[in-house]
Every structure is written in structure tokens, then in C-alpha cells.
Amino acid sequence: MPHSTNRLAPRTMAFVLAGGRGSRLRELTNDRVKPAVYFGGKNRIVDFALSNALNSGIRKMAIATQYKAHSLIRHIQRGWTFFRAERNEFIDILPASQRYEESTWYRGTADAVAQNIDIIDSYDVDYILILAGDHIYKMDYELMIRQHVETGADVTIGCLTVDRKEAKAFGVMGVDDSDRITSFLEKPADPPAIPGMPNKSLASMGIYVFNWKFLRELLIKDMEDKNSSHDFGNDLIPEIVKNGKAQAHRFTDSCVRPEGGEAYWRDVGTVDAYWKANIDLTDFTPELDLWDRNWPIWTYSENTPPAKFIHDRPDRRGSAVSSMVSGGCIISGTEIRESLLFTHVRTNSYSSLERAVVLPGVEIARHCQLRNVVIDRGVQVPEGLVVGYDAEVDARWFRVSEGGITLITQDMLDRRAEG
């Protein structure tokens, strides 16, 4: 029986890979997986992939988890439970559960899908969209799925257009004039250029579209290969490029952006990149539009009171300039500039924050001066702390990044107090 709609998203399942730690974020991922890291004042990183899928019309999703997944699972349970099975909508959490061997968790990205073949079969879908859960971007996946079907590809890979010199850090596609992929190279020393664009390359976004029947057979074959690392980028994609048809999909063809705006995609995998992407949101016109009601980023929305600013004396004024301050915050006699504060942050008199990213539940005591910092969730900042003015002093107690951003956690402060 033919489908009643020509849209492809309702016939697609989104499978989000959210098991990686993200160790370059250092202590920010000590207790949570990278997709569960906070972003933008109220979101988690994983909300972007899930919201893109939802806004694209996909109502069948699964999230594969592994490393320290509790924070992520709790967020999904609190913020993403509006799917209704009676409307044929699902969002499944698929922890690594040693389903085939007691000593084996997910062995790679492809294995995370392969170990859940029976669950995917139960969704009764034609297409499967594989997503990384740790990037910040807005994209209409329907357009990518449609290109996949129209070109008759075995796999379609989402690609960024990057400078060739920057492409060395990515998996890079060599393509012909029709964007058919002719080679797939992992972090090559000499990345292939895009035809007609000698200084640009196509880098993989870690987004793949497959026909489910095709991928299902490929996964079963890969599981039986003892020499495989069971990874899409290392094993399955090169095999398809060599023996099948792999197609590149350019992010600029499906990204969601303000009229005249640039295509926005960020890997916030380092402390510097994470800090900058958050602080960039305080710009007069940020590149990432979180205020777009036509393509909202869904999340768990706490029931919080409005932010409150108190005291109005020259030396003791609760104020915020070029900043984002979330609900539940109380700014008491603190000057805040170019900063982003998550929910339930409390600051006290005679303190100042400049270019600070402050995660939920932080309390900052009096007479603190904090500049170019990321403060982890729930930290109690002691009275008189000065950070961001002397990198050598800061590095004795805190994590100072290559770009000069200081990461502050409660454990660091406790060691400082003891020392």
C-alpha cells in the first residue's frame, strides 16, 4: 500500500549516538557525557540533534548511551516525554546493556546500531538517520533524506565546507562534480579539494542517511567480521565508497538560518570552543538564533521565577550588560558583562563577572572578580575569589585552557581551600 504522504521524515527513524565522553571538555564531563553538557542558558547539547529531528517531522527516535549516562537519561525523561505511542511516536533510550556478550559494551558507532537491530525493526521504518549527539547546529533533515532517495544512494553523508588547512582534523570526502563520494579519508595530511573550489574541502558531520534494509544487512555482515572496529567512519563508510554509492549532502543546502545569515555549526568539544560558543550568544546579533519560533530548540523547561536584580548604588548595583541571564537567578549588587548565566545562579554584592559562563545552581559570594571563566554546576564560589587576571596564579588551582579560559569546579575550590 502506498504511503499517504510524500514526506519522507515520517518514514524515518533518527538514531542519536550519545555515548562518547568528550574528554577534551576536561572536568565538565567528569560526571556527565558530552551530549548532556549544558549549553545556551537552558539547553543540553543533545537538544539540538533531537530538536532538528522533531522540527523536520521525525517522530521516531532512539538515543544510544554508554559513558556516565544518568544525567542525559534524566534530561530525556524530564524534557522529552511528550511523544505519544498512540500517535506512532517514540523516543527510546538504549543504554549499552551487553546484549550479546557479557564482556562487550558498544564497541563502536556501528555496533551501537547493530546491537539494537530488533528494536529498530519494530519501528517499521524505511530510512534511518544516524546523528551525532554532540554538535550545535540547526538543520532540516527532510531535505537531506529527500536527496538520498532522489540520488539512489546507499548512504548520504552530511558534509561541511571547510578550508583545506582546517580539514586535517576531520574525516574528509573526495567528491566528483555530482557530489558522489569517491574517497573517504580520516584526518588526511593533504585533504582533497572540492571540484572548482581548490581551497575548500568537504568534512563529515557524522550524519548519515541509509535505507534501513541496506544498512541492516551491512551491520550483520560487519558484526561477523573479527577484523572490524565496528565503526561507521572507519569501516562501513569506506566499504560503501569502494563498492557502492555514497553521496555527499552539503550542510548549506539544509541548514536553518536567519535570512542572509551564515551556516552555523559548532563542535564545542574543547573548553575554549565551549566558552566561545556560549559567549557568542551574547552578541548583538548572534550567529545562532535561539529566538526563532519557527525552528525552536526544545528542552526540559524548569518552572522558574523571572531573574531578579537588586541594589542600585554606584559600588553595589545589580546589573547585566550584553548578557543572558536565565530564570531563577538573583543578581544582588553584582556587575555582569558579556556573560551567560544558567538557571538558579545567585551572585552577591561587590562582585563582578566578565565574559563568564556560569552553569546552573552556582552561588557567588561577595567581593569576587571573575573574568574569562566557565563555572561548573552547583559550585559555591568563596568570598573574595579573583580569577582571570593572572593565569599563572589561576593555574595553581584551576584548569586554564590554551586560550586562557579558566574552568572552575567544586573539587578545585575544595583543594584550594585545603592547600
From TrEMBL:
One of its GO terms (biological process) is glycogen biosynthetic process. Alpha-D-glucose 1-phosphate binds at residues 106, 171, 186-187, 204. Transmembrane segments: none annotated. SUPFAM superfamilies: Nucleotide-diphospho-sugar transferases, Trimeric LpxA-like enzymes. Keywords: ATP-binding, Carbohydrate metabolism, Glycogen biosynthesis, Glycogen metabolism, Nucleotide-binding, Nucleotidyltransferase, Transferase. Its EC number is 2.7.7.27. InterPro entries: ADP-Glc_PPase (IPR011831), ADP_Glu_pyroP_CS (IPR005836), GlgC_bac (IPR023049), GlmU/GlgC-like_hexapep (IPR056818), NTP_transferase_dom (IPR005835), Nucleotide-diphossugar_trans (IPR029044), Trimer_LpxA-like_sf (IPR011004). Residues 14-282 form the Nucleotidyl transferase domain. GO terms for molecular function: ATP binding; glucose-1-phosphate adenylyltransferase activity. Pathway: Glycan biosynthesis; glycogen biosynthesis. It comes from the Bacteria. The record marks 66, 105 as: Could play a key role in the communication between the regulatory and the substrate sites. It catalyses: alpha-D-glucose 1-phosphate + ATP + H(+) = ADP-alpha-D-glucose + diphosphate. Residues 305-408 form the Glucose-1-phosphate adenylyltransferase/Bifunctional protein GlmU-like C-terminal hexapeptide domain. Belongs to the bacterial/plant glucose-1-phosphate adenylyltransferase family. Homotetramer. Involved in the biosynthesis of ADP-glucose, a building block required for the elongation reactions to produce glycogen. Catalyzes the reaction between ATP and alpha-D-glucose 1-phosphate (G1P) to produce pyrophosphate and ADP-Glc. NCBIfam families: glgC, PRK00725.1, PRK00844.1. This is Glucose-1-phosphate adenylyltransferase. It comes from Celeribacter neptunius.
